[in-house]
Amino acid sequence: MHAALHRLCRLCRLALLPLACLPSAGAWAWGDVGHEVVALIAWPRLTPAVRDKVTQLLATDTQPFKMANGQMTNASFANQATWPDYYRSSQGPGGQPYQQTHNWHFVDIEIPGGSLDQACFNYPALPPELPASEGAEEDCVVDKINQFRQELASAATPAAERLLALKFLLHFVGDVHQPLHASDEHDAGGNTKMVSAPGIAAGNLHHYWDTEFVLAIPAPQATAEAIAAKLAAAITKTQAHQWSSLDPKVWAQEANAVARTKAYGALPPPKTVGGKSTYSLSASYVGNATAAARVQLQKAGVRLALLLNDALK
Ligand SMILES: [Zn+2]
């Protein structure tokens, strides 16, 4: 769930500080965990027939990509869920393909007062015959999920585009459930707010929600597999039923509500340290945020499976 980097880069382009855009290795690995958790929760919820179709589609992928740990991969369902972040960053912040998919990872509903429609650039129509992977730069994650879902469901979609649709969906369903991918308080989605908390290295608010609150979920190990196993086992039938909306607008509004109440609404007053506003998060903020991240990941996993089961039925 890694909007941190591209949001920072948007800022540093404005500030003409290109060196500040260089990713740190650490920033990468962690962002992947949330996406892998979502995919690992979704996988056993797919029907056997859909699992086969997904496996067959991913097997046609001839473009391996390099993970943060140096591993080259294009094979696993969970790893594929991280691909759009690597794809985007591989082009660099000034590159045309980077720009093309930059906005698709989030829906920046402004706090206060912003609307979903504004944050989605009023849903630019996809011209006939143009694949969703080549659609307008100014589009949001909600609209892209709907476009790629249609492509995945249609037998008329060319095979290469269908594969791309699947790869983007595996990632974007996760992104739209990250509260700071569905909100903005004129702070680049939390990237410009510095925070600290007991036992967690100081960082920015977006990174905390991308990563630290995911890793804080109690599990035998802080790995995607262990966290996903814990979360998957705890999903009840009633919850899965309550979460069964297939409308990404609903998903975005829910994530935005979490951001308003738990991410931004619960922040303590800032202190000024070295000329910067910083927020010292309490143990109770961290506990509530971790619980919220847990539910958001569970919802994303359930909904990714629903969406794939529906599109590939
Ligand atoms: Zn992303």
Strand order of the largest sheet: 4-3-6-5
Q: Which homologous superfamily in CATH is the superfamily?
A: P1 Nuclease
Bound molecules: zinc ion
The multimeric state of the shown protein is single chain
Which range does the strand content fall in?
Answer: 5-15%
- In the CATH hierarchy, what is the class? Mainly Alpha
Mean pLDDT value: 88
Query: Strand pairing plus helix content: what structural class?
Result: alpha+beta
Could you list the spans in which at least 5 consecutive residues all have pLDDT below 50? 1-30
> Helix count, per DSSP?
14
Domain module count:
1
Radius of gyration: 18 Å
Q: Main β-sheet, in a few words?
A: 4 strands, mixed
Helix content: 40-55%
The CATH architecture comes to Orthogonal Bundle
Cα(first) to Cα(last) distance is 28 Å
Order of helices and strands: HHHEEHHHHHHEEHHHHEEH
Report the CATH topology name: P1 Nuclease
What does the model show?
The chain has 313 residues and is of the alpha+beta class. The chain has a single domain, classed as P1 Nuclease (Orthogonal Bundle). It has 14 helices and six strands. It has helices at 4-14, 25-42, 48-59, 77-80, 83-91, 96-102, 116-119, 141-153, 159-175, 205-215, 224-234, 237-242, 248-264, 283-311; strands spanning 65-66, 72-73, 194-197, 200-204, 271-273, 276-280. The strands form two sheets. Strands 4-3-6-5 form a four-stranded mixed sheet. Strand 1 (65-66) and strand 2 (72-73) form a beta hairpin. Zinc ion (ZN) is lined by residues 2-3, 84-85, 105, 171, 175.
